[in-house]
Amino acid sequence: MSAKRCGPYFCGIDAAMDVVGGKWKSLILWELEASEVRRFGELRRALPGVSEKMLIQQLRDLEEDGIVHREVYREVPPRVEYSLTEDGRALNAALEPLGAWGRTRIDRIGAARVHAS
Q1: In whole angstroms, what is the distance from residue 58 CA to residue 45 CA?
Q2: Model confidence band, residue 90 (pLDDT cutoffs 50, 70, 90)
Q3: DSSP codes, the chain
Q4: Which residues touch 55 (CB under 8 Å, ≥6 apart)?
Q5: CA-to-CA distance for 95 and 25, rounded, in angstroms?
Q6: Is residue 1 pLDDT above 50, yes or no?
Q7: pTM, to two decimals
Q8: Other residues' Cβ atoms within 10 Å of the Cβ of residue 18
Q9: Which long-range contacts (CB under 8 A, 24 or more apart) does 89-94 make?
Q10: What percent of the chain has pLDDT above 70?
Q11: Measuring CA to CA, which of 43, 66, 87, 110 is 20 to 30 A from 5?
């Protein structure tokens, strides 16, 4: 699979942010890590505020970059499931220290947390 984003980059952070840039991609990664496999509707419900169009685009980008695997089941009605690839799991592991920093910041500044319905 060829990635559409292929540099040039200033550094590793630049290359990584090219893949996970934006609000929804990191949240999709987090949700797939927590649940392993999700259908589109489950992801949409788990990410309040994301539009269908945005979720489709973000999933396509992550799939194209080899971060998310899309499995299509040929049945009626059609079923599509998303999961992390090995690269996706490695990316989540790399993002974990950033998430820990963010959780500490949330507590330090007393910010509210969004809870999925």
Answers
A1: 15
A2: very high
A3: ---S-----SSHHHHHHHHH-SHHHHHHHHHHHHHSEEEHHHHHHHSTT--HHHHHHHHHHHHHTTSEEEEEE-SSS-EEEEEE-HHHHHHHHHHHHHHHHHHHHHHHHT-------
A4: 24, 28, 40, 43, 44, 47
A5: 12
A6: no
A7: 0.85
A8: 15
A9: 89/33, 91/16, 91/19, 91/20, 91/29, 91/67, 92/29, 92/30, 92/33, 94/16
A10: 95
A11: 43
Task: Return all residues near 86 (Cβ < 8 A) that are at least 6 apart.
Answer: none
pLDDT tens digits, 66-83: 999 999 999 998 899 999
Question: What value does the mean pLDDT take over residues 91-108?
Answer: 92
Checking if the pLDDT of 9 tops 90, the result is no
Q: Which residue has the tokens 């934006």?
A: 22
